[in-house]
Amino acid sequence: MFGIWPVSEFAIGRHTARVCGMLGVLVLSMLGGCHSSKREPTTVSYLRLGWSQPDDLPEMGTLLQQFTRETGILVRDLPVPETTLDQLDLSRRLLKQAAAGPDVLAVDVIWPGVLQSDLVDLQHDVAEGFPVLEPQLLRNYEADGKLAAVPYTVQVGVLQYRRDLLSEYGYQRPPRTWDELEKMAARIQTGERAKGNKDFWGYVWQGAAAEALTCNAIEWQAAAGGGRVIEGNRTISVNNPAAIRSWQRAKHWIGWISPPSVLAYQELDSLNIFDKGGAAFGRIWGGASITDIALFRQMHWRNSLAQSITGYTTIPGGLTGGAGTLGGSGLAVSQHSSHRREAIELVRFLIRAQIHSNPVDESAVVHEPGLRSAGSVSVASRTSETTVRAKLVLRPSSETGSRYEQVARAYIDSVHSVLTGKKSAPEAAAALEKELVRITGFAIGPPLKED
């Protein structure tokens, strides 16, 4: 995610399965050569989440070269598939290869409970050396009493918008609610099509049956007062009127302000549409600091649409305000690594570099008393003096641990069935509730009210 992700991730076609299988064989062959070698210097393998920032690849290469110069340790950067659950599947399979698996790997913020049995506890080896790390982020990487990974990148769901088009159509600020977004998107879409841009759309997002849909849908629910699917007290809350209405609202967008093809869009698809000037609004990931998640920044790494006409703000809200999904990744060390000392040294180096990397753009941040408290971010709209506050919403990975993958698959399939019209929203929510009870054994309860 920079988040992490037109086929279903959960019904991977034969072609996609074959590609992922070939990638697994390639990585295994690379790993085998790494661990069987007796030559010096030591080489550690790094399985990195890497699709989301193409411009970041040369920078990472330079950083790893610097690590080698300073330590004499070589690093082999391994390829990964695009989607987060394909990445999870590959990580799990490679870790089961024991000493032939990766030494260091990036793990999504939702993976610790799934992978923790094969990962080193980094609390004493790494985390205690960096007391500036955001405590809330550290908690999201804990599983079964161990710190399975150390926070490395942080993403928050945000809304990007065409600043020039908002101004042209008389809007002084970006939308704060979904009602406002719908009105703005519909009006701008109509106006742009009247100019001859027949393929222009109001709002693009990620509607494929993949983990990115979880992030979108949980934002819709949270903003409507519909809860987090499974609450922090381990009760299943998804079958409630507010959540159902949020799914119905999203279905209404399709063919109106969002293209029918949005049902197959993953991250790169929606990014490409927006960057080619084909949409007024788009849902993407923004970055935050691993030392203070109250400091938000948008890292505009794409060049196809001028940064000067692109604005960023929080995800629109509803009854309880806006809510942006927490995303990102942490660095983990394999329990089976033959080079644990060197692997931990690489993790320390990368965390240190991240802390001291590009500072947050202070012109895009508004500091307010109390803003550092649990999971709120502040974004200053660059088109006005308005300060926008948004709460973070967490996917229920901590509550479900090793069962999160099953929970996510069930949730995504249910939401996607509503968006495609295969099921009504009430029918899908009721069936999902029963399935989640079966998977988790948790009781049913109402959405918890926000503090």
Molecular structure report:
It is a single chain. About 40% of the residues lie in helices and about 20% in strands. It contains 14 helices and 15 strands. The strands form three sheets. Strands 1, 2, 3, 6, 7, 9, 10, 11, 12, 13 and 14 form an eleven-stranded mixed sheet that branches. It has a two-stranded antiparallel sheet with strand order 4-5. A two-stranded parallel sheet has the order 8-15. The longest helix has 23 residues, at about 15-35. The chain starts with 13 loop residues before the first helix and ends in a 7-residue tail after the last strand. Residues about 1-20, about 50-55 and about 360-390 have low confidence and may be disordered.
